[in-house]
């Protein structure tokens, strides 16, 4: 699904990302962990072609992301609030996305029904612009937007941050369900080791831009990560 | 404590990212302010001579006094547009154990330190020294100039209250409109002489200190009104938050016929309506529709050689039909600096965004063209002028401006007002004024000189139509430029906001 090869990002002298090769198969839930400045967000931005790689390339469905645009129709992402249209209400925002993705109104309704529990009646039908929402609700809107249009790949940066405990648990359920029902490939970065090890089949640990662990055994993930982060 | 706060304010303005980044803009702005102030001083010095020329032999002081009300009306208007509200800094201070009263005092004091506060003094002091002190003695001159200055300062405090309370609301617009009508209309149309209303006050101030004392009281009242209002509303949701603009939430239906680009044009329309800065631009477009009134009937620009078209009219026509586009497109992508990643991450997103903007510009220009039809009343040539200028605007000038604006676009905060807010403005925005002025004349002048004015106009129209026919390739040039620079643009938008 996603192939990364010889990827490097450099700001003047400082190398912030250096990934030799990384392959993410379809349907995998891929977790990305690492301390601040490890390059998680940069990696996501390069995959989404928001930042130019100094060298190397990223392919989604065998398309080089910097050369074509077709992959964008099947890739959903929520990294930060720059990806929202803050001057719309959530309803207007979803309606806009519906038109962009060419979905029917019924499709949109069905999609949003999946989020009823997560939204907890605080998002839809309110006369409030997105820019005035709380950080948690902002995140919920972004996540629901990222999952629109039946994407093959969904990338979420720190999805659990700013969410209340019930919402965190609901979000986990939702991700697992999407993964099983629609074979969506998830790329999730998180500082919350418990959540990320619970939902992800594979965890990659970044340090100063390099992949230093690639863990696939569920049983060992937690202990390995704990050992690393306690130093 | 007071000085600590002042120092903080100073540091804030020095260290803000936009200050360092746009040093050039700031220097230019400072220069401009100095030039304008020196004009005011010059006018003040020449005031006596001007009055002498305009009305020889009359009592100049009495004449000036009867005109003062217009000065204050004008002051009211320019203060409404220029004066900034001081509440933006409130957020970072409110939670500290300083006391609201102190903070508000400081903010109000800061708002008072501004070139606007000395305009009245600069303008009337020379006249007071030269003329008034000769006739009514030094005391008379002092009380007179003080009364004027205090009136001006009263307007300052009143405006702080007025803008906070009514800005962006229909009442505010209505009052401004009323001020315009009163100022321009009343004496001109001969309904009543507004000047006579205020004249006795200033006449009396020449010989007695009572009007001065009265003005002190009025100013203190205005200050207290303003101060009380700010203290009692010193909550984030009352002052900093923008009120919701609910009355214009509709989409423009016709755009949805143009597919994805049309959808994004609709989005852009919502963006314009829901942000202060863009709304001001839209309002300006409305004001500029009246621009022709100044020029078309002005004897100074009366038709050369009977054709009814002065060369300066081209410029007026371009402005009337295209001012919104010309201004808005200068900051083409900066408007979307807060959500550029959204468009980047959608298939065809950037392309449709740009096409949508094109669509919107054409739509607004067309509405301006329709709204300018009444100028036909002054003569058919103005209809022709506007149609030709419209085509030139949407056919040629639009592409040109956008091309220039794509040179290093900068991020900006849309929730700040537009007047004297130079966020997002860089060297490119200054430079692009040149092609804006030159391009229409480059087409018009040769045909005008070789044949006649109408040939020049037709040439503008034909060039515009050709540009319109070549819309696809021309717009593709700009789209490709954005796509080629997308990384730089998106990272500059992300880092600075």
TrEMBL record, chain A:
Keywords in alphabetical order: ATP-binding, Nucleotide-binding, Transport
Gene Ontology MF terms in the entry: ATP binding; ATP hydrolysis activity
Domain of life assignment: Bacteria
Higher taxonomy: Bacteria, Pseudomonadati, Bacteroidota, Cytophagia, Cytophagales
Record's keyword annotation contains Transport: yes
Pfam families for the chain: ABC_tran
Source organism of this protein record: Algoriphagus lacus
Protein name per Swiss-Prot or TrEMBL: ABC transporter ATP-binding protein
Domain spans labelled ABC transporter: 2-230
SUPFAM superfamilies tied to this protein: P-loop containing nucleoside triphosphate hydrolases
InterPro entries for the chain: AAA+_ATPase, ABC_transporter-like_ATP-bd, ABC_transporter-like_CS, ABC_Transporter_VariousFunc, P-loop_NTPase
From TrEMBL, chain B:
Residues annotated as transmembrane: 21-41, 61-82, 103-129, 141-162, 169-190, 210-230, 280-297, 309-335, 356-377, 383-406, 427-448, 454-471
Keywords attached to this entry: Membrane, Transmembrane, Transmembrane helix
One Pfam assignment: DUF5687
Record-linked InterPro entries: DUF5687
Superkingdom of this protein's organism: Bacteria
Protein's UniProt keywords contain Endoplasmic reticulum: no
Protein known as: Uncharacterized protein
Organism: Algoriphagus lacus
């Amino acid at each position: 699904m996603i192939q990364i090869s010889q990827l490097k990002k450099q700001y003047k002298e400082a190398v912030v990302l250096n990934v030799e090769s990384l392959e993410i198969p379809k349907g995998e839930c891929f977790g990305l962990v690492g301390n601040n400045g490890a390059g998680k967000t940069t990696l996501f931005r390069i995959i989404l072609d928001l930042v130019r790689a100094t060298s190397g390339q990223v392919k989604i469905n065998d398309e080089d992301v910097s050369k074509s645009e077709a992959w964008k129709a099947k890739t959903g992402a929520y990294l930060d609030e720059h990806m929202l249209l803050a001057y719309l209400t959530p309803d207007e925002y979803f309606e806009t996305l519906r038109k962009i993705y060419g979905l029917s109104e019924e499709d949109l309704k069905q999609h949003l029904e999946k989020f009823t529990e997560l939204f907890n009646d605080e998002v839809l039908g309110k006369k409030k612009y997105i820019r005035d929402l709380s950080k948690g609700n902002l995140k919920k809107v972004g996540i629901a937007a990222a999952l629109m249009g039946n994407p093959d790949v969904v990338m979420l940066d720190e999805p659990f941050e700013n969410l209340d405990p019930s919402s965190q648990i609901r979000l986990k359920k939702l991700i697992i369900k999407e993964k099983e029902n629609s074979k969506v490939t998830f790329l999730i970065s998180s500082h919350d080791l418990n959540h990320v090890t619970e939902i992800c089949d594979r965890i990659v640990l970044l340090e100063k831009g390099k992949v230093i662990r690639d863990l696939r055994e569920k049983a060992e993930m937690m202990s390995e990560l704990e050992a690393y982060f306690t130093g | 404590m007071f000085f600590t706060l002042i120092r903080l304010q100073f540091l804030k303005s020095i260290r803000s990212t936009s200050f360092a980044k746009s040093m050039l803009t700031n220097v230019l702005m400072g220069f401009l302010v100095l030039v304008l102030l020196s004009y005011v001083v010059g006018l003040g010095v020449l005031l006596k001579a001007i009055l002498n020329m305009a009305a020889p032999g009359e009592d100049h002081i009495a004449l000036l006094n009867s005109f003062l009300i217009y000065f204050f009306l004008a002051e009211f208007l320019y203060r409404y547009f220029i004066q900034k509200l001081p509440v933006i800094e409130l957020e970072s201070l409110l939670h500290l154990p300083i006391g609201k009263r102190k903070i508000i005092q400081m903010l109000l004091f800061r708002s008072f330190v501004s070139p606007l506060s000395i305009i009245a003094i600069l303008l009337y002091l020379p006249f007071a020294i030269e003329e008034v002190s000769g006739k009514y003695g030094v005391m008379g001159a002092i009380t007179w100039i003080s009364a004027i200055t205090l009136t001006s300062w009263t307007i300052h405090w009143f405006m702080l209250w007025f803008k906070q309370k009514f800005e962006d609301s229909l009442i505010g617009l209505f009052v401004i409109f009323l001020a315009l009508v009163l100022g321009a209309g009343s004496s001109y149309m001969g309904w009543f002489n507004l000047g006579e209303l205020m004249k006795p006050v200033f006449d009396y101030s020449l010989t007695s200190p009572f009007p001065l004392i009265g003005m002190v009281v009025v100013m203190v009242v205005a200050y207290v009104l303003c101060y009380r209002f700010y203290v009692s509303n010193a909550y984030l949701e009352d002052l900093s938050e923008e009120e919701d603009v609910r009355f214009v939430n509709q989409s423009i239906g016709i755009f949805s016929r143009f597919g994805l680009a049309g959808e994004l044009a609709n989005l852009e329309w919502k963006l314009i309506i829901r942000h202060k800065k863009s709304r001001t631009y839209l309002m300006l477009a409305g004001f500029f529709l009246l621009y022709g009134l100044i020029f078309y009937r002005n004897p100074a620009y009366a038709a050369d050689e009977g054709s009814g078209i002065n060369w300066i009219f081209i410029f007026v026509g371009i402005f009337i039909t295209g001012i919104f586009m010309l201004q808005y497109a200068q900051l083409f992508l900066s408007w979307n600096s807060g959500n550029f990643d959204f468009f980047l991450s959608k298939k065809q997103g950037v392309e449709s965004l740009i096409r949508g903007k094109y669509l919107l510009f054409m739509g607004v220009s067309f509405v301006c063209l329709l709204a300018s039809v009444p100028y036909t009343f002054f003569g058919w040539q103005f209809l022709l002028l506007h149609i030709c200028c419209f085509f030139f605007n949407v056919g040629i000038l639009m592409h040109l401006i956008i091309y220039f604006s794509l040179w290093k676009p900068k991020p900006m905060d849309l929730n700040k007002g537009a007047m004297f807010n130079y966020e997002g403005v860089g060297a490119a925005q200054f430079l692009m004024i040149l092609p804006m002025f030159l391009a229409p004349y480059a087409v018009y002048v040769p045909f005008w000189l070789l044949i006649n004015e109408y040939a020049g106009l037709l040439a503008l129209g034909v060039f515009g139509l050709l540009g319109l026919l070549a819309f696809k390739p021309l717009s593709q040039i700009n789209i490709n430029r954005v796509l080629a620079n997308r990384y730089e643009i998106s990272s500059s938008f992300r880092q600075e906001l």
